[in-house]
Amino acid sequence: IEEGRIVGRQAQAPDDSWARKDHAGQLVLPGFIDTHVHCPQLEVIGSYGTELLDWLERYTFPAECAFADPARSQAGAEVFLDALLASGTTSAVVFPTVHKVSAEALFDAAAVRGMRLITGKVLMDRHAPDGLRDDVAQAERDCIDLIDRFHGQGRNAYAVTVRFAPTSTPEQLAMAGALCRADASLYMQTHVAENRAEVAWVAQLFPQARSYLDVYAAVGLVHERAVLAHGIWLDDTDKRLIADRGAQVAHCPSSNLFLGSGLFDWPGAHFNVSLASDVGGGTTLSLPRNMGDAYKVQALRGARLTAWTALHAATRGAAEGLRLGHEIGGLSVGQTADLCVWDWAHGPVAQSHTQ
């Protein structure tokens, strides 16, 4: 490794001047890539709720209101990113809050830590409490300022971030689509078809749309840099559209099980699927644990998920879906040396399998 990149095999063993650390029995892997997670929701992880919409109102929105305070945003970003790193995650696609300062804090904290971060101020101008709503004009100005200051700077990249269709007016969705069309290097992140009640609500709010996904597609938000969280209740036409546009779905198994949202049809996806923790709906930042939950989701559907498929979705597959396969997600020459050491045999039960 030289200057943060993998340059090849070392020609000879290091001499005694090198510090040595023994990782025998552990796995050195590409750093995990969490493609959907919420920074401000770390403190509400595991909160009791019924289903998605009630959980948002009861826990999530009150927690996010606190991030209007710059000091709270900075402290929250630092704790959150350190927790990701402790879980082996070195790159992430992150939701902050509607507050511009929450995105600024994440970008700054990620740069200090050398992480690859994709984030952007959340857009939501309706169906949210006071303190969590913006307006179209100010939101556009905030996005443009953040893009100018952070997108492509170091390892930071900007994502046009739509909370979900119900919390944005048609005018705000159109503005988000215009931002994406103006700069094809921008990412887009949102939620889609997570919960049946949510899908029904979208149908009421957007009666002209063929489907929930069509709300986004109609304004140009479904493209090759789009990260769509969940995608449980998509029909075949939606699935073909995602594949045709080159977008990816971030599968959030821990969250889907905890909130009872449904069972994602991975074998029937036929588009790029990455793995995500979705904390705080998800109950752990650990992507290896989410791999285990993904296996359970498919088992409940009568299918089986291989360990290699799950690992690929948390590393190389996620990187390729983000158009970053040349940079992260692997151990190839030329890639950034984002590595994690996985002590998979930690604890007496796991250790018994190594003997």
Description:
The structure is a single chain. By secondary structure, the chain is of the alpha/beta class. It has a single domain (28-352), classed as Metal-dependent hydrolases (TIM Barrel, Alpha-Beta Barrel), CATH 3.20.20.140. The protein is 39% helix and 15% strand. The strands form two sheets. Strands 2, 3, 4, 5, 6, 7, 8, 9 and 10 form a nine-stranded parallel β-sheet that branches. Strands 1-11 form a two-stranded antiparallel ribbon. The chain is globular. The chain starts with 26 loop residues before the first strand and ends with a helix. The mean pLDDT is 95.
Poorly predicted ranges (pLDDT <50, ≥5 residues)? none
Please give the oligomerization state of what you see.
single chain
Cα-atom Rg, whole angstroms?
20 Å
**What is the CATH C-level name?**
Alpha Beta
Biggest pleated sheet: 9 strands, parallel
- CATH fold-level label: TIM Barrel
Under the CATH scheme, the architecture is Alpha-Beta Barrel
Strand residue percentage: 15-25%
Q: State the shape.
A: globular
Number of strands: 11
Annotated CATH homologous superfamily: Metal-dependent hydrolases
CA-CA gap between termini: 32 Å
Coarse structural class: alpha/beta
- Share of helical residues: 25-40%
Provide the succession of SSEs.
EEHHEHEEHEHEHHEHEHEHHHEH
Number of domains: 1
Task: Provide a count of the helices.
Answer: 13
Mean pLDDT: 95
